[in-house]
Design a protein that fits this description.
By secondary structure, the protein is mostly helical. The protein has 14 helices and 5 strands. It folds into 2 domains: about 5-125; about 135-325, hpI Integrase, Chain A. A hairpin with a 4-residue loop joins strand 1 (about 180) and strand 2. The chain starts with 5 loop residues before the first helix and ends with a helix.
């Protein structure tokens, strides 16, 4: 069976360029769209998009909705199905306006990639995402070792998440020059730091606990004064690997290299919790933990607005809607208690 169609490849490249340059989407988003289109192509035997008809969309949808995940061995999540179908719907809607395809594909044909109403509601339903309590964070942090350079780095990473709640992608790209210990802040400069929507903003360290602040400050000073790291060196460097006496590879200190992604840093936080006998919380859930704390600490409207900006949000509504969950029990307590 053929694995690609030259004509399709040309129009796909044009669509990818459209997503990157016109719609300003990042690499990961464009890649997901490309993956969705490739899945559809494979289902048709890589026929030309000019031969598209709605029965192809209907058949693809029926088969895709019954697929089993290779990772979990369970049926695909409704959210996964929704994301793939939405990507295909957008592609064929765009395709219907392109030269050579206008007479063959109608804009309304893209609607055949819609999920049924029931599955769409399931896919878009908001679900509670577990996040660690302050007590759990304190317990996990207390259990982390501090003997080696990598141990110190890992503890500083945990502490930084508590006082700055930066996104893990941004953390992996931070350099020493972005940290101001005198003012107590981190300057998330989008020219260097991988912030969401390439937004530049300053995050002031939050008074969550002196154990976290002391740990992080000590780490930065250790890098600058003892390791002689320069301003452009990474804040959380990769391990320096070398040959051991036994002939294998081992960690021999800190390198001056940046991480290409946040995967290793995520695993560090996972390990910190699991080694303390707690659930494996990812770094992003710290934002919920600190937002929950911030509710009680920043109580005036101005303080709440400042707290929201500290998280990189333009609107307080974004902070409250995304990171301030109210579970059923708390909803009951707040409503009944206000009577």
């Amino acid at each position: 069976m053929r694995k690609f169609n030259e004509e399709n490849e040309r129009i796909k490249r044009k669509y990818s360029q459209y997503l990157r340059e016109a719609k300003r989407m990042d690499h990961k988003t464009v890649q997901k769209a490309e993956d969705a289109i490739l899945k559809f192509e494979a289902s048709t035997g890589f026929k030309s998009f000019k031969l598209f008809h709605i029965e192809q969309a209907v058949a693809f949808k029926a088969k895709f909705e019954n697929e089993i995940s290779k990772t979990t061995g369970k049926p695909l999540a409704k959210e996964t199905i929704a994301a793939t179908l939405t990507a295909l719907k957008k592609f064929f809607f765009w395709l219907a306006g392109q030269q050579g395809y206008k007479k063959r594909i109608a804009h309304s044909d893209a609607d055949y990639f819609n999920q049924n109403a029931k599955d769409a509601r399931v896919a878009s339903a908001r679900r509670e995402i577990p996040f660690p309590s302050l007590q759990q964070c304190a317990h996990a942090f207390a259990q982390m070792p501090s003997a080696t350079d990598m141990d110190k780095r890992n503890r500083a990473l945990f502490a930084f998440l508590m006082i700055a709640t930066a996104r893990d992608g941004a953390i992996a790209s931070l350099r020493l020059k972005h940290i101001d210990l005198v003012e107590g802040c981190v300057y998330q400069d989008a020219r260097d730091v991988k912030t969401k929507f390439s937004k530049t903003f300053t995050t002031w360290f939050m008074p969550v606990g002196t154990e976290y602040t002391d740990c992080f400050y000590a780490w930065v000073q250790y890098l600058r004064d003892e390791k002689l790291f320069a301003p452009d060196d990474p804040l959380f460097p990769r391990p320096l690997m070398g040959l051991s006496d036994m002939g294998g590879f081992e960690v021999q200190g800190l390198s001056r290299d940046m991480y290409a992604s946040a995967n290793a840093l995520r695993l560090t936080i996972h390990d910190a919790f699991t080694n303390a006998g707690l659930p494996k919380y990812p770094p992003h859930t710290f934002r919920k933990t600190i937002t929950k704390w911030g509710q009680g600490y920043y109580t005036s409207p101005a303080a709440l607005k400042a707290f929201s900006q500290n998280l990189g949000h333009d609107s307080v509504a974004t902070t409250l809607d995304s990171y301030c969950p109210v579970g059923p029990e708390e909803q009951k307590r707040l409503i009944v208690g206000c009577r």
